[in-house]
Amino acid sequence: MENRGQKRMEVVDDELPADKRACNSQDSKPSTSSDSSVQGHSQEEANGASSGHENNTDADMDTSSSDSPSNRSDGEQDRDREDSDYGSCDSDDDEEEDPRHRVLKDYQRGRSSEDQEKLTSLVSRLSEEIDPSLQLIGLTELCEVLSFCTEDSLSTVMADTLSRVLVKLANHESNADIMLLAIRAITYLSDVYPRSVAFLVKHETLPALCQRLLTIEYLDVAEQCLQALEKISKDEPVACLNAGAIKAVLSFIDFFSTSLQRVAVSTVVNICRELSSESPSPFMDAVPILCNLLQYEDRQLVESVAICLTKIADQVSQSPEMLDQLCSHELIHQSIHLLNLNGRTTLSQPVYNGVIGLLRKLSSGSSLAFRTLYELNIGYRLKEIISTYDISHSVSSTHPINECSNQVHEVLKLVIELLPSSLVEDNQLALEKERFLINQPDLLQQFGAYMLPVMIQVLKSGANVYVSYGCLSAIHKLTCLSKSADFIDLLKNANILSVLAGTLSRKDHHVVVVALEIAEVLLDKYRDAFFNSFIKEGVFFAIEALLNSEKGQQNPVSADVSQKPISKEIVKCLCQSFERSISSSSQTCKIEKDSVYILATRIKESFFGPEVFDSQKGLTDVLQNLKHLSAALDGLMNVPIDAHALHDEKFFTIWNQIIERLNGRESVSTFEFTESGVVKALANYLSNGLHQRKFSKGDPECGSLPFVGNRFEVFTRLLWSDGEATSSVLIKKLQNSLSSLENYPIVLSQFLKQRNSFATVPNGRSTSYPILRVRFVKAEGETCLRDYSQDLVTVDPLCYFDAVDQYMWPKVHLKPLDSVEAKDQAMECQSSQLQSTSISCQGESSSHMEIDNPNASQGSQEEDQEQLTDSGEENISSSEEEDTLPEEDALPRLLFRLEGLELDRSLTVYQAILLHKLKSASETTNDSKLSGTHTITYERAPQLGESHENLIPLGSIMDNDEYHPFLSYLFAHRLDLRHKATNPPAYDILFLLRSLEGMNRFLFHLICHERINDFGEGRLDNLDDLRVEVRPVPYAEFVSSKLTEKLEQQLRDSFALSTCGLPPWFNDLMGSCPFLFSFEVKSKYFRLAAFGSQKVHHHPQHLSSSSGQGEGRPVTGSLPRKKFLACRGNILESAAKMMELHGTQKVVIEVEYNEEVGTGLGPTLEFYTLVSRAFQNPDLGMWRSDRSSFVGRPKEDSGFLVSPSGLFPRPWSATSAAFPDVLQKFVLLGTVVAKALHDGRVLDIPFSKAFYKLILGQELSSFDIHFIDPELCKILVELQALARRKKVFSESQTDARAAKCDLNFRGTKIEDICLEFALPGYTDYVLAPHSANDMVNMDNLEEYIKAIVNATLYNGIQKQVEAFRSGFNQVFPIEHLEIYNEEELETLLCGERDLFNMNEVLDHIKFDHGYTSSSPPVENLLEILHEFDKEQQRAFLQFVTGCPRLPPGGLASLSPKLTIVRKHGSDSSEADLPSVMTCANYLKLPPYSSKEKMKEKLIYAITEGQGSFHLS
Questions:
Q1: Residue 1218 and residue 1179 in contact, taking contact as beta carbons nearer than 8 Å
Q2: Which member of 23, 272, 1273, 1479 is catalytic?
Q3: Residue 1294: alpha-carbon gap to chain centroid
Q4: Poorest-confidence range of 29-38, 325-334, 611-620, 971-980?
Q5: Contact (CB, 8 A) for 1450 and 1443
Q6: How far is CA 376 from CA 172, 357, 846, in A?
Q7: Lowest-confidence region among 564-568, 664-668, 1339-1343
Q8: Of 1010, 1014, 990, 1013, nearest to 1002 (Cα)?
Q9: What's the CA gap between 1094 and 850, in Å, rounded?
Q10: Which entry of 46, 843, 1308, 1409 is 20 to 30 Å from 1360 by CA?
Q11: CA–CA dist 662, 625 (Å, integer)
Q12: SS3 211
């Protein structure tokens, strides 16, 4: 490191090789010249992103050093610089008392007086002066004064006089310099004193400026006119419109630079805010130029043009002629081009949605637009947009509104507009559109072929009620319009009836009515094609269920707007959410009472007789056959559990019949699969009924666990006998069944407002969120308690019922207590402790909770994770102090009920009441349902406490069992049994899915174990047959798109998260079945669970949005930041010092290096990279680096260890002298890893899969050595097979059979191999109780294998793992990581493995300041990146970003976005080197003449420019 640093210093005078530019305040200083104000602003945006990365005006910055405490003066200087860069920490009150501020105010007053005197003098001189040279001098002085003065320096009279003088000078015909300075002064005047704009308009400034633009004589004058008009248009848009400013600024727009083109279009945007429909000519004449500008590549320019055209379309939307005129200029062609997701000009989300809305408005009022959209195949483009609906959730949105749903909502509006219905709309335009589709059936068929499947997919994915209603409405219209026979096949392939069956079980009646209307149309038009499918998919059974539930009940028709995705439109009813316009008179619901009952009855009576609903006649052959197989599986439970052979034979027969039916020619519908009972029977058989019971040590059921393991082993062999095909079929069926049966509610609270409240219960305190009003009433017949119902009580919604119990007990208990006051105080204390178990927003108890603005961030919030504690209580722990719950012997004294039903004590009061309300509420709800008064009855609790639900650790139940790791994983985090009571079918499905996911995860273990048994029992003879190659099912197949989408919707509701207004299923499923959710949504959940709501807005580098407003630097909420001075020569010592100072603090650390000017994101990321490599130093003795014959030889290169299977702790004896130092290194490693996660940094340290399992708290088995050292595992498996064979034949007690037994290891006796009783590669490690001199023989072979496994996976590394976890826990609890699997955890820690997907690079790179995506140097750079090998790509990434790996999500998630700009250097760009600003991911690339030259310079830069941060 030092040598390389000296080398760079030697060449600094000649050519600094691509040194990285430091991020400091000078980089982001804006230009003060008005001529380049726009360019200066653009440069500030680019550079400001670097200096302001993760910036916060309230940031608490200080500087620490790892070198010496004597560097205090340097630290103080750094602090001064931090105050200028990041803002001071002082509060406003302190500022008012600061005498420096008073001095500054006095200075400003004096300066204003001086400016007034100067302005008065200058106005007087300019009014009287006629000498051009003196006028120039006066205007120059005037511009200088105006550029530095404030609004206080000017008055209305002065502005009036000055305006008149400047307008006169601006009309000077003979002197261009006078015109330029006069117009510049007008620009300054408009900027510093906005009230002067009215005077400028009065004195005819606008005609003068427009004339200069329409007849350009001097380009610099015209450019200044653009600047002036942009300022004036902000305050006087109507005057600018009437003066012809739109035409003036656009007529010669191509003559100006990109920055001034932006100014010109910005002027038009300002004017378009106040358009008048009375005289459309001024703005309609500009449409051709605006449409042409849509083809430009500058994003900011194109977005402004799109806004202008949208405003114009809004203004003429009532005039078909005007809309046709818009279409005649190819507006639709250009708009569709902008919607191209792979286009080079990417739009921000709001503008993108606006373009879709523009197309809808054009189609609504213009038949020409309607026809053009169909002819341009708009269906394909809309399909592409909706197809990315779920992808758009993979990054966090910083928009206040849910832009993802907003986008789909706009698309569905357009789709519905493109499907006219003359029966509903009843106007000439609708008839004309419908005739067009009748005459062009191929266009409608093509549109349906694109849109129907994707809308069906959206419905299956659990879209919110608004999107669901829009999709169903569009499908209904499409079904009514289409008359093609091909449409029948399209409907069948999309499996529309399965979706309808699931939709009919939803609770929102608007959605149900549309589904019934679709069913009626299908039966009316295509009865023969769909009749049998209606029965097979269960649609008619769903209709019958509707009739039974609706009979005698009035239909509630009020809409639930809790999921309203639009903020500007006020929609009172769901059925009007897709209307063109909503008038105040039409805001009543269109659904009449009993609509569902009437429509369902009509369908039943019109199309089907009573025999269809008969319990037996209405069943299909497939369903009856599956029912028989299910009964056969149930019958297996009566076979003795230890009859392995009989069980295997019968189960094999039954399962083959089930699979044959599932893969048969006649498909099995989701309805048939769920109704058959196969899922319940299979779950019951495999688990022997344990999946639905609570058991602990000593229970008779525990003795059946080994048999359960054997059943799963057999089931694994059957499922994976043909690869992953059979298991994939079963998983898909289970996922479909879960989607159709689950009814988990979504709770939104978007419109609840923050307000200060006072909660009496549990301990009386103010809250910044709404409280619950509760009346506690004594239960009838309760005689041992007092009545407490006289008054309403305000209850903190975040407290648990245990806290309510503590508050209520002394008030309602009749028996006198000794030392009441003392006991009350104890109870209050315990109540306070209980209260701290609620969600912590800043690592504190909820009493100090800060509720985030509900509109602050909808896409990046996760809920605190409820963990299952030893006492069986669920609690959320994210506070700095230990959260305490009642001890196990503290039994509840009161029982609480709501409307007769007992409330769950493991939930907060809010959650418990919410869960009760949701049982009778609509499918989505909001907090308004909880805003009334709740009557809760209380009674004395039973004396005997309930048994705890938590399962006793399996390690204490089945010691040394061969299936222990798998069964421990399967039963350790079971789904809460209340799910079994509320939804038994879903409970069984979830257990089977968890079982399949566990089998998939332990696939290598289970199959290896079976092969060993087969070899031991003689069914295999060759050791080579023990080799196992498994093909696990891709993890993505276990992800439920519907539940993931529901969780996404829940996580967007910031207020519900902050106040714990979350349904219990949220935590239950994440704790027991995290595989159901995508990595992206789990990451959002994790950040809130681990760091609280203060980090909700802290998008780590891998979660920041890469589109729209999310392009900027990550937002760190209100977390303070600390600077740390590191030394490159002692990187681990610096890391230790940094963790000691700031590791446990809730701060974000930024690193700068000794004697280097760089600071910010780039140096910080490089620091974590350097620390990662330092930990891989083989001299530390932390990792396995065996060189024995059993172990492959890892490479040692560049001073760090690279193992093919990843890093895994090496075994150490506790008596070794070096062992304490190794433990300290693991403690430090754990702290560094946790801090990197906390701060959103990426590491470059390749742990092995087995080590990730240890981090996740999972148990290892001997087969996990495969993920540490495959060769060692292979040999151990073969030795295990020999030991198993010896054990089997020795137990058979048949000498003849034992004589035939081959116990040789590949033809050699074990004794002849001369294996010493020592750990391969680590002879200093003692395998107790033997010594290294003992030899391995057949009698002690099994003991030898256990000793090696124990040393490799247990005792030899246990202390190291404990040290790592203890270091990790100093930052936040490591248990929060348990929702991830090993691959996901690696991605979370180390980012993406694949660095560049060249097909997507253009979509995620920004080009600016002289470069576009089509610039030759840019095209050369992309080709060079494609040609780079992996190591060169890593070097390039580290050069540009400071880290050799991309964050999770890849290049799309890089924040700030990778930006490539033109580097303006010396006259000969060939000699310049590329340079970067790592804080902004900003590459400054010279325009080299050839690709070869660029590659040469780039390789030199990325290899020689590493390791230091200097100015470039």
A1: no
A2: 1479
A3: 63
A4: 29-38
A5: no
A6: 52, 17, 56
A7: 564-568
A8: 1010
A9: 8
A10: 843
A11: 11
A12: helix
Cβ within 8 Å of residue 1316, ≥6 positions away: 1332, 1333, 1334, 1335, 1336
Token pair listed for 1302: 């081959």
Give dist(CA 432, CA 435) in Å, integer.
5
Which pLDDT tens digit goes with each residue over 925-964?
Answer: 554 556 678 889 888 887 543 333 333 444 444 444 567 7
Q: What is the C-alpha separation between 1397 and 1050, in angstroms, rounded?
A: 32
Crossing angle for the helix pair 621-636 and 678-687, nearest 10 degrees?
A: 20
Compute how many other C-beta atoms are within 10 angstroms of the C-beta atom of residue 877. 23
Tokens 């007990």 -> residue = 809
- Are the CB atoms for 1433 and 1443 separated by under 8 Å? no
| Six-digit token string for 1322 | 């680590």
Query: How many residues belong to the chain?
Result: 1512
Closest CA to 1245 of 1411, 1326, 1132: 1132
**Which amino acid, 1236?**
A
DSSP annotation string for 1117-1182: TT--EEEEEE-GGGHHHHHHHHIIIIITSS-EEEEEETT---EEHHHHHHHHHHHHHHHT-GGG--
The structure tokens 């075994």 sit at 1211
Q: How far is CA 201 from the centre of its chain?
A: 50
Instruction: Give me 83's structure tokens.
Output: 């105050």
Place of tokens 């299956």: 460
In three-state form (DSSP H/G/I as H, E/B as E, the rest C), the secondary structure along 947-965 is CCCCCCCHHHCCCCCCCHH
Q: What type of residue is 382?
A: L
DSSP 3-state helix, strand, coil percentages of the chain (rounded to 5)? 55, 5, 35
- 425-460: b or e for each residue (b if 16 or more CB lie within 10 Å)? eeeebbeebbebbeeeeebbbebbbbbbbbbbbbbb
Measured distance CA(439)–CA(432) in Å, rounded: 11
Mean of pLDDT over the chain: 76
Active site residue 1479: yes
Residue 1368 pLDDT > 60: yes
Query: Which long-range contacts (C-beta less than 8 Å, at least 24 apart) are formed by 333-338?
Result: 333/372, 333/376, 334/291, 334/294, 334/295, 335/294, 335/306, 335/309, 335/359, 336/373, 336/376, 336/378, 336/381, 337/294, 337/295, 338/294, 338/302, 338/306
Give the amino acid at 148: F
Sequence-distant (6+) residues with CB within 8 A of 737 are 670, 673, 674, 679, 985, 989
Contact 1026, 1014 (CB under 8 A): no
From CA 1093, how far away is CA 853, in angstroms rounded? 11
Q: Among 315, 318, 358, which Cα is nearest to 338's?
A: 358
How many separate helices (H) and strands (E) can be counted in the chain?
A: 63, 21
Q: How far from the centroid of its chain's Cα atoms is residue 327's Cα?
A: 39
Place of tokens 């080994």: 706
